[in-house]
Amino acid sequence: MKKVPAFVGIAATGMLVLSGCSAGESVDIDGGGDGSGRTLIAAIGGEPDQLDPAVTSAYFSFQVLENVYDTLVEPDENLEMQPALAESWETSDDQLTWTFTLRDGVTFHDGSEFTSEDVVYSYNRIIDEELSPSWRFTAVESITAPDDATVEITVTQPTPNLLTLIGGFKGLAIVEQSNVESGDITRNPIGTGPFAMEEFTSGDHITLTANPEYWGGEPAIAGVEFRFISEGSTAVTALKAGEIDWTDSIPVQQVDALSSDEGIELAVEPSNDYWYLALNQAEAPWNDVRARQAVAYAIDRDAIVQATTFGTGAQNQLAIPEQSIWYAEFDEYSLDPERAQALFDEVGFTGGTLDFLATSDYPETVTAAQIIADNLAPYGIEVNINTVDFATWLDLQGAGDFGIYMLSWLGNLDPDEFYYAQHHTDGSFNFQGYSNPEVDALLDAGRVEVDQSTRQQMYADAATQIAQDASYIYLYNPSVIQAWNPSVGGYEARGDRAIRFRDVTISD
Questions:
Q1: What confidence tens digit (pLDDT) does each residue in 153-166 have?
Q2: What are the tens digits of pLDDT across the range 272-297?
Q3: Which residues are CB-neighbours of 204 under 8 A, at least 6 positions away?
Q4: How many whole angstroms separate alpha carbon 251 and alpha carbon 409?
Q5: Which end of the chain is more exposed for a tag (fewer CB within 10 A), N or C?
Q6: 186, exposed or middle or buried, with CB in 10 Å at 0-12, 13-18, 19+?
Q7: In angstroms, what CA-CA distances link 224 with 141, 191, 244, 248?
Q8: Is the preceding peptide bond at 285 cis, omega within 30 degrees of 0?
């Protein structure tokens, strides 16, 4: 049984821009393999809705896309930003111009040359079409290509987390224009990454093949087959039987047993993800902060964490986990029925119905909804659990058709990613309808502050106010739980949940 080390290096993601001019260091590429090994069989918990990285928001999609696409920069195993398609960069003295020098000799999977125009197209498409990652470009004034090997990004204000914004999420992957315009990108994406799309069989699997021209060296394995196995127990059985090589579809109640299984490599490590509740502040009484706080005091986090993670999650009342340097202390919302009732009394709320939006694609939401329904019943609140597929869930969330919902944010690195889009008045994911001018000012200031300690305090203050206002009611940080066959080498579980198979080998 193998324990993968925990990763705690989130702090360094914002450090490169603290000086007037900074440059990225080139990657030490080992050269990879020859793609002659066998195909790795990986079981994931569901089918991607589509494979356009700038459009999809499904984790199942990004598990695949992590291996198909590249970004300009990317986080390493310590979650520090490193060169990828850009081999180096520098910032101007006024911090308003970022100049990226691109890696030479990179090609897309169809053989076409990768140039700076592909970066300009990829980023401007997100901005112009207002696609889901567009909030990451809020401070960007222009993106230009002075020549084929150079990209300049001009920002309207110092942006200390720009590297994280463009490299910490595969939604910012560099795409091929013709692939987008043909519409093929949703099922047959063409990237520059270590593996190329071969087959997408809906309801069953996606197959990728090794890219012999990959700039980081051809992978040692022939490819990756992602099988869609929604039942975790089925995936674990298949892993034990040697039918698959890797899975993260692992029932948390099986973790203890798997930890002593010598035939399986298991990783259970802290992540920087978080699960939360959001009440619809467009509806009474949830537009009153006291009513939201009452719910925060009424719910039993211990029971939720135990039921949804079997104790593998870490209870947290803020978004950012304890292992991050961006973590701030906040523990005001212990289970306190008397305090909850007093707050409801202050509001004059004597009960009613609350529609809980859950999704069958994330069973945690259904389990937690049942506990929360029991928690709120003594206050005269009848919780109606509306369980839908995730695509429908997203539509209902976007339309504001919910009383309360539970979901998670995955893969955030910089504090701006944890808070701005979710809690700024103009945030693109502020579906709960939260607005606090003090928080807006702190989040705006944090985006331009280049002094690390000052910036850290700004986000601690903002996070505390967000929690006190119960914009989100935070529940816990889950662990990364993955398992693989001992014959698989070169794989490491990551705190950002990025599933990278480019350095994997498989022994006989």
A1: 999 999 999 999 99
A2: 899 999 999 999 999 999 999 999 99
A3: 227, 228
A4: 20
A5: C
A6: middle
A7: 39, 15, 11, 15
A8: yes
**What gap in Å lies between CA 171 and CA 312, rounded to an integer?**
28
Which tens digits make up the pLDDT trace of 82-123?
Answer: 999 999 999 999 999 999 999 999 999 999 999 999 999 999
Ordered by where they begin, the domains of the chain are: 1-269+482-508 (3.40.190.10), 274-477 (3.10.105.10)
Q: What whole-number distance in Å separates Cα of residue 381 and Cα of residue 291?
A: 12
Which three-class secondary structure string do you get for 365-407?
HHHHHHHHHHHHHHHCEEEEEEEECHHHHHHHHHCCCCCEEEE
For residue 302, the tally of other CB atoms under 10 A from its CB is 13
Q: Which of 162, 149, 87 is nearest to 120 (CA)?
A: 149
Look up tokens 């987390």; give the residue.
161
491-to-193, 213, 254 alpha-carbon distances in Å: 17, 21, 22
Model pLDDT, residue 292: 98
DSSP-based three-state secondary structure for 420: helix
Strands (E), 46-128: 73-75, 81-83, 86-91, 97-102
Q: Where are the alpha helices (DSSP H) in 32-143?
A: 59-65, 116-128
Structure tokens given for 379: 């206050």
Paired tokens of 197: 């799309």
As a whole number of angstroms, the distance between CA 185 and CA 64 comes to 13
Give CB contacts under 8 A, 24+ apart, made by 119-123.
119/72, 119/85, 119/143, 119/145, 119/151, 119/174, 120/144, 120/145, 120/151, 121/175, 121/177, 122/54, 122/172, 122/173, 122/174, 122/175, 123/153, 123/166, 123/172
The residues, any chain, with a CB within 8 Å of residue 431's CB and separated by 6 or more, are 278, 397, 398, 400
- Residue 183 pLDDT > 90: yes
Residue 37 pLDDT: 85
- The strands making up 274-279's β-sheet, listed across from edge to edge, are 314-315, 473-477, 274-279, 404-409, 352-359, 381-388
Q: How confident is the model at residue 248 (pLDDT cuts 50, 70, 90)?
A: very high
Copy the structure tokens of residue 173: 């992957």
For residue 172, give both structure tokens: 């910012």
- Give 332-356 pLDDT, tens digit per residue: 999 999 999 999 999 999 999 999 9
pLDDT of residue 262 exceeding 60? yes
Cα 404 off chain centre by: 21
**Res 35: pLDDT:** 63
Res. 175 pLDDT band, cuts 50 70 90: very high
Q: Among residues 381, 293, 388, 387, which one has the least CA distance to residue 340?
A: 293
Does residue 466 surpass a pLDDT of 50?
Answer: yes
pTM score of the predicted model: 0.75
| Amino acid (one-letter) located at 35 | G
